[in-house]
Amino acid sequence: MSQTDSTTPRKILVLGATSGIAEATCRIWAAQGASLFLVARNAEKLAAVAADLRVRGASYVDTAVADLDDTDQHPALLAHAINSLTGMDIAYLAHGILGDQPQAEQDFNTAAQIIYTNFMAPVSLLTWLANFCVQRHAGTLAVISSVAGDRGRKSNYLYGSSKAGLSAFLQGLRNRVDREGVTVLTIKPGPVKTAMTSGMPKSDKFADVDQVAKSIVAAIDKRRDILYVPFIWQPIMCVIRHIPESIFKKLNL
Ligand SMILES: NC(=O)c1ccc[n+]([C@@H]2O[C@H](COP(=O)([O-])OP(=O)(O)OC[C@H]3O[C@@H](n4cnc5c(N)ncnc54)[C@H](OP(=O)(O)O)[C@@H]3O)[C@@H](O)[C@H]2O)c1
After folding, report:
1. What residues are in contact with ligand 1 under a 6 Å CB criterion?
2. 155-209 pLDDT, tens per residue?
3. Looking at ligand 1, which residue's alpha carbon is closest to its atom 13?
4. Whole-model pTM?
5. pLDDT of residue 8
6. What does the pLDDT average to over 109-129?
């Protein structure tokens, strides 16, 4: 495990590196001179992101093309990435799908795909990564969940339940590994302007991806446990979580 002093570039593994939020975060890390290993499933987009980050000042950029639903490949992929970086200070999990809620209400395979990509694949990655970090008594696992996981709503309860499962998994993992010197950060964004939300009504009012990325970098630096971003979502979700179910079930959310 490398040291994170001011002279050594941080070694950061990014899973889902072509995500809008991940890209914006990596731009900040690149400007700080970080070493990056980027994983994404679209080779062309990945090459473009990697080239951009090299120009922006990253001290090292390597890549691997992988569909992260292929959990059998995770151990080899992660070992290769850490070997390439010669260590790992931060693993950043950013991949995910919104999925088609109306279709998922009718078709279990659609529902299962959302759960698999957003929950099962991260559990596989984090199981390997947590054990790697525990052995070294160091490292940060920063994972993008969502405010949607804080309460199930009719408009997106498949996505929401996949993120609720992920948030609960991260809570338990943190409780296990914090005492081993490993930090687990659960990132809960509200709506953010990225490809995932571009077709949604009022998406121009959603949070700016660069501001969100800035908050994520700061939360990782402060070794925080949970980040609601933008911050306003923390009180909003507190209220939403406390609405009695007898009322909540009648709301159109
Ligand atoms: N935007 C929001 O409002 C919002 C709010 C809360 C949470 N989040 C979460 O933030 C994270 C990043 O999302 P985003 O907003 O940046 O959206 P995005 O730009 O659509 O990014 C999603 C990324 O996940 C990748 N991906 C999906 N399935 C994959 C798989 N099986 N293997 C490898 N990569 C896969 C996509 O790759 P391709 O480009 O190849 O499809 C894409 O790069 C997600 O976990 C999302 O759930 C987003």
Report:
1. 16, 18-21, 40-42, 45, 67-69, 94-97, 117, 144, 146, 189, 191-192, 194-197
2. 999 999 999 999 999 999 999 999 999 999 999 999 999 999 999 999 999 999 9
3. 19
4. 0.97
5. 78
6. 98
Confidence of residue 7 (pLDDT cuts 50, 70, 90): low
Domains and CATH numbers, the chain: 11-248 (3.40.50.720)
Letter string b/e over residues 214-226, b meaning 16 or more CB atoms within 10 A of that residue's CB: ebbbebbeeebeb
- The closest-lying atom of ligand 1 relative to the alpha carbon of residue 18 is 43
- pLDDT for 5 equals 54
Task: From the CA of 41, give the closest atom in ligand 1.
Answer: 33
Which atom, in ligand 1's list, is nearest to the CA of 148?
A: 6
Per DSSP, 187 falls in state E
103 C-alpha to center of ligand 1: Å? Answer: 19
Residue among 91, 97, 115 nearest 38 (CA): 91
Pairwise CA distance, residues 141 & 152, whole Å:
25
Q: Exposed, middle or buried, 120 (CB in 10 Å: 0-12/13-18/19+)? A: middle
Give the residue whose CA is nearest to atom 22 of ligand 1.
19
